[in-house]
Specification:
Blueprint: H1 8-22, E1 27-28, E2 35-39, E3 54-56, E4 63-66, E5 78-82, E6 91-93, E7 100-101, E8 112-123, E9 129-135, E10 141-144, E11 161-168, E12 175-181, E13 187-198, E14 203-209, E15 214-216, E16 220-228, E17 233-240, E18 243-248, E19 253-257, E20 263-273, E21 278-280, E22 284-288, E23 294-296, E24 303-311, E25 319-324, E26 332-335, E27 338-341, E28 345-346, E29 365-373, E30 382-392, E31 412-420, E32 427-433, E33 439-445, E34 453-463, E35 465-466, E36 478-481, E37 493-497, E38 500-506, E39 512-518, E40 527-533, E41 538-544, E42 551-556
Parallel strand pairs: 15-22, 23-30, 28-35
Antiparallel strand pairs: 1-11, 2-13, 3-6, 4-5, 5-13, 7-12, 8-11, 8-13, 9-10, 9-12, 14-16, 16-19, 17-18, 17-20, 20-21, 20-22, 24-25, 24-29, 26-27, 27-36, 29-34, 30-33, 30-36, 31-32, 31-34, 37-38, 38-41, 39-40, 39-42
Length: 557
């Protein structure tokens, strides 16, 4: 970016403004010992002459530059000799190229920093100065410090002095160009151009909720605040004791803890700054109790099927009827703890359902299949439904010539929580898509009315499919299971097989199941019968029958 030429009148005006501004700028002998000075590229001029970092910009032809390789503070330095009455500044860091980025210098927009420059007068009476132009990226300027010249009263300006300039970076700045400046009709030397950064930034970090000594459910959100001056917070890490739960890099800082074990937990956060500092918050202790309002995919619950169906978009898309359907009719089935959901089939060849019959038949209705649980009256609480989408391949097959799904081509499947009015005339709800291989969590604050109906579950939406369609398998399915890290309640089903007792129970991938027994309930000791890893299917453990009583239990880890 070329420096604009200025008229003599404008330069004089700038000098007058600069004189008053300079009254607030002080000279310092050195930075505080706790601080470090980050020099700009070749800011010590250890490389003589203009380099890739510095570019001469002699707008008016009145400057002479030299770069002595010794005699600086302590090594090489640069000089500007102003030989005419009308001139402007001389060399720019990064010159006409892309501005130097703030991040490369450890700086943050909106913060105030101390910038420094070593200077002395070689000839004449006017000391040099300093200027920074701010940019939003490549070359769009968003601000400037203007010319900054320090007051020289009380200083031996024939010797090297370190001058400081307190500068607030504009909030929209991304890059900058730095300009050491001349003194009127003087030759000025400059060196060690940089910015002072605290070695350890003053940081603050705290957990804002939950508060200390609070009782929470097994699913709760940890909220934290963190700040740093100068600089910026780069990360807030959330801990349960010494266990890292997760990180958040953007404000507001929070972490959603799910499936937390019952008992006492010690929470803390650690905030880090871009200048290298870090601070740990005070510990917040919470008592975790079983959460009655947290629900996951659990085959032991009572699942209900309901089907609504609609006309196709070509026929107006209006609601037709709805009614209770068996879950098998919804093509919704459990295998262990995993629920499979598939596009709906109807074996009735009537034209009400299909435009034609046979393979690749065109569905004449849009099916809205709901597979759900009604947990009972839950007035005025915040309830959560969570799980894991193990697989989602439900999509449109190229051979399918059916109508366009109102929610998109093919079929969609979402998880939901619905809160219906007592007469089902209205409802409030939340939904979330099911992404292959990803967990899902949704919450709803229910209306404080015990007569309302609460449902959570899954909704599969799309055109009906001919039951014997050879392409049916290619239309895909959705498989959902419990939230990983939160095993469902397990019912053990006993049965006799000859002289053996068979214990059957559903398992979940990622958990270990240990069957134990004892013959006396008053005994404190349990004997391990067997341990098995969860596969998502039903496990069967066999135990020999003896004359003594045996009491069994199942531990899940």
């Amino acid at each position: 970016m070329k420096t604009p030429e200025l008229t003599k009148a404008s330069i004089v005006a700038n000098r007058i403004k600069t004189f008053f501004a300079s009254m607030a700028v002080a000279a310092i002998a050195s930075s505080a010992s706790a601080d470090t000075t980050n020099l700009f590229p070749n800011g010590d001029f250890s490389v003589a002459g203009p380099t890739a970092d510095w570019v001469e910009n002699n707008c008016c032809g009145n400057f002479v530059y030299t770069y002595p390789t010794s005699g600086g503070n302590p090594g090489g330095y640069g000089t500007i000799n102003n030989q005419g009455p009308v001139s402007y500044y001389g060399i720019w860091v990064n010159g006409d190229s892309v501005p130097l980025t703030l991040t490369s210098m450890g700086l943050t927009a909106g913060q105030t920093y101390t910038f420094v420059e070593d200077m002395k007068i070689i000839s004449g009476t006017s000391i040099g100065g300093f200027k920074i132009d701010w940019f939003d990226g490549l070359n769009a300027q968003v601000g400037s410090t203007g010319d900054m010249y320090p007051s020289t009263a009380g200083h031996n300006t024939a010797n090297w002095e370190t001058y400081s300039f307190s500068i607030t970076i504009p909030s929209g700045a991304v890059g900058m160009k730095i300009v050491p400046e001349w003194g009127g009709l003087s030759e000025v030397a400059f060196d060690n151009i940089g910015v002072v950064l605290p070695t350890t930034s003053p940081l603050a970090a705290s957990i804002t909720s939950p508060v200390n000594a609070t009782t929470v459910g097994t699913n709760f959100t940890i909220n934290a605040s963190a700040s740093v001056l100068p600089g910026a917070v780069t990360n807030v890490a959330f801990y349960d004791g010494t266990t890292l739960l997760g990180n958040d890099t953007t404000s507001p800082y929070n972490f959603a803890a799910t499936g937390v074990s019952v008992g006492s937990h010690s929470l803390k956060v650690v905030a880090k700054a871009n200048t290298g500092g870090a601070v740990t918050s005070s510990v917040v202790t919470v008592n975790v109790v079983a959460d009655p309002y947290f629900f996951t995919v659990d085959p032991t619950k009572t699942w209900v099927g309901y089907m609504n169906w609609y006309e196709t978009p070509q026929n107006g898309g209006g609601f037709t009827p709805g009614g209770f359907w068996g879950t098998a009719d919804l093509r919704a089935t459990f295998s262990g703890s995993v629920l499979s959901l598939l596009p709906n089939t109807i074996g009735d060849p009537a034209g009400y359902w299909y435009v034609s019959t046979g393979n690749n038949s065109v569905g004449n209705k849009i099916m809205d299949a709901n597979m759900y649980v009604e947990p009972g009256s839950l007035p005025g609480v915040t309830m959560t439904f969570a799980g894991t989408c193990n697989n989602n391949t439900m999509t449109t097959n190229g051979a399918f010539a059916g109508p366009v799904n109102p929610a998109g081509n093919g079929w969609t499947c979402v998880a939901f929580i619905k809160d219906y009015a007592p007469d089902f005339s209205s409802s409030v709800s939340v939904t979330t898509p099911l992404t292959n291989g990803q967990p899902f969590t949704i919450s709803l604050a229910t209306i404080n009315d015990p007569a309302r109906h609460i449902q959570y579950g899954f909704e599969t939406f799309g055109p009906c499919v001919w039951a014997s369609d050879t392409s049916l398998a290619g239309y895909g399915n959705v498989q959902v299971g419990p939230l990983v890290g939160s095993p469902t309640s397990v019912a053990i089903t006993p049965s006799l097989n000859g002289g053996n007792l068979r214990l059957a129970f559903p398992t979940q991938t990622g958990f270990t199941y240990t069957v134990q027994y004892k013959t006396n309930l008053l005994s404190a000791t349990w004997t391990t019968l067997t341990t098995t890893n969860g596969t998502g299917s039903t496990a069967v453990v066999t135990s020999g029958i003896s004359g003594a009583n045996r009491f069994y239990r199942l531990q899940i880890q």
